[in-house]
TrEMBL record:
Its main location: other. It comes from the Bacteria. This is Ribose transport system substrate-binding protein. Residues 27-287 form the Periplasmic binding protein domain. It is found in: Cell envelope. Belongs to the bacterial solute-binding protein 2 family. Keywords: Signal. GO terms for cellular component: cell envelope. It comes from Alloyangia pacifica. Residues 1-24 form the signal peptide.
Length: 314
């Protein structure tokens, strides 16, 4: 048995010591921000899970922005202090949230992490990690980029928050795949702090400074929306191979009108639904997997109306 699995089982055992006393109770879903459609879709999934039973209630919260890390730490601390039965957490920072998750572990409150990983030192203090395989998703977009633009030229990377677990996998593996499989030159990455207006301004500057760009990648929802708007304002729609990430209405329209070549869409609803189900399983004494892949679909104009895309778009 490997060390990670041993730690996870020990954490589950500790959590289960509280399960008898907390079979019914609040499951706190705490995300990176409540101001994004992506996280509201997580809320819809969590709501669907909680509506399927009567033992537990669910609360949904998050800071105003993804960069308000201290506020998210406080939300977790507050959940622990009020004695919730379990926590579903999308950590905005892999290091900053680790002590709060450890405190939940020490308080015998089971925690399921979604979307972005915690630092390796936190392994054993939570019961499961549910996420898109962000590295595989980054490679999927990179492969599609090469298919579209070939192996030479400049590709800009518009990222979001440096150091976040999902960003490290998504952008890192995108860049590594291009380096290993092409001679494409990376411009950036630029960090929007998950603010659409920042991404719009940054993309506008990048397009002006690099008129020879052949491709561009917007690595999360607000970044990709700002990027798409900048491309349209610059009159470059359809002239540059642009790929986004996530699938709100704005991004879907960009795919339909040709501003974006494709969007890689995560199973955000599934993160909420499966995350809450995982906590309820731990509280019920059921065994759960330590990693649950919530999937990604590359949505293009050709498949946007197909069931595979419609099941993940929001």
């Amino acid at each position: 048995m490997n060390g990670r699995l041993t730690k996870l089982m020990a954490a589950s055992a500790l959590a289960l010591t509280a399960a008898g006393a907390a079979q019914a109770g609040e499951i706190a879903v705490i995300v990176k921000t409540t101001s994004s459609n992506f996280w509201q879709n997580v809320n819809l999934g969590a709501t669907a899970a909680i509506e399927g039973q009567s033992e537990h209630t669910m609360t949904f919260d998050g800071p105003a922005t993804e960069s308000a890390i201290a506020d998210q730490v406080n939300l977790v601390e507050n959940a622990i202090n009020r004695g919730v039965a379990g926590i579903v957490l999308a950590p905005s920072d892999p290091e900053a949230l680790a002590p709060a998750v450890k405190r939940a572990y020490e308080s015998a409150i089971p925690v399921v992490i979604i979307d972005s990983a915690l630092t390796d030192s936190a392994e054993g203090t939570y019961q499961a990690f549910l996420s898109t395989d962000n590295c595989a998703a980054g490679e999927l977009v990179a492969s599609a980029m090469i298919d579209k633009v070939g192996t030479e030229g400049k590709v800009a990377v518009m990222s979001y928050v440096a150091g976040v677990g999902s960003e490290i996998g998504r952008v890192g593996c995108f860049s590594d795949y291009l380096a290993a499989n092409s001679s494409l030159e990376i411009v950036g990455p630029y960090y929007s702090q998950s603010q659409m207006a920042n991404a719009l301004n940054q993309t506008t500057d990048v397009l002006a400074a690099n008129p020879d760009l052949v491709g561009i990648f917007g690595a999360n929802e607000p970044t990709a929306v700002g990027m798409g708007r900048a491309i349209e304002q610059a009159g470059k729609a359809g002239q540059i191979a642009a790929f986004g990430f996530d699938g709100n209405a704005d991004l879907q329209e960009f795919v339909r009108n040709g501003t974006l070549e494709a969007i890689a869409v995560q199973g955000s609803f599934q993160m909420g639904e499966l995350g809450v189900n995982a906590v309820m399983d731990v509280l019920a004494g059921n065994k759960i997997e330590s990693f649950i892949d919530t999937g990604v679909v590359l949505v293009t104009k050709d498949n946007i109306d197909a069931p595979e895309a419609q099941n993940v778009l929001y």
